[in-house]
Design brief:
The chain is of the alpha+beta class and 186 residues long. The chain contains 7 helices and 6 strands, in the order H-H-E-H-E-E-H-E-E-H-E-H-H. The strands form 2 sheets. A 3-stranded mixed beta sheet has the order 4-1-6. A 3-stranded antiparallel beta sheet has the order 2-3-5. Strand 2 and strand 3 form a beta hairpin. Helix 1 crosses helix 2 and helix 6 crosses helix 7. The longest helix has 20 residues. It is elongated. The relative contact order is 0.13.
């Protein structure tokens, strides 16, 4: 039948509208049509919407315990692969000028980031992950648009809390990699 999908969608919309009124819920009960309590919104900001584990917004850096030594080794793969070029990384150096395996500067321009997840996919060290936090507000116009290394660093416990299934897989891969390198003879 032509327009069947449109009519079904209009029926769902009409039923949802009826559910918002007490008399409408009574009418739906008389017609033996299942209904909810009529509340289809949440009371924000008192109640927060629960985000699905696959939800992604902006990236963050993961560290294991010590924020001074994140998983990131400043290899700059994510900086090179980022389509809008919003990631800027500068490697750290010791007192003699030798490079260290950690970033000194890790900035992301939030105004340009399109949450494409490519930086997460290309990171060989599982150092960058996508966050569920989407509420960014501030009083300064341009300072809030750049996330620095200090803003981006979050512990592995935070990652485990927001994405338990993905973090379990990542932790298992990292543990397997650590046992493999520990088993290699020197």
């Amino acid at each position: 039948m032509i327009g069947e999908g449109v009519l079904r969608g209009m029926g769902i919309t009409f039923r949802t509208m009826l559910e918002t009124y007490p008399w409408g819920r009574g009418l739906l009960r008389l017609l033996h049509i299942p209904s909810t309590n009529g509340l289809i919104t949440i009371q924000y900001p008192e109640q927060r919407q629960v985000q699905h584990e696959r939800f992604r917004y902006f990236p963050f850096l993961v560290h294991d315990g010590d924020a001074e030594n994140p998983r990131c080794v400043a290899c700059k793969i994510c900086e090179k692969e980022c389509p809008p070029q919003c990631i800027y990384i500068e490697g750290d150096k010791d007192a003699q000028g030798r490079p260290l395996k950690r970033p000194k500067v890790f900035d992301i321009d939030i105004s340009v980031c399109m949450s494409c997840n490519i930086c997460v996919e290309v990171c060989p060290f599982e150092a960058i992950k996508m966050d569920n936090r989407f509420e960014y507000a501030g009083y300064e116009r341009f300072l809030q648009l750049r996330a620095t290394k200090e803003d981006l660093l979050k512990p592995n416990a935070y990652f485990q809390a927001i994405k338990p299934v993905e973090s379990a897989e990542v932790d298992a891969r990292l543990a397997a990699k650590a046992t493999k390198t520990a088993a290699k003879p020197a």
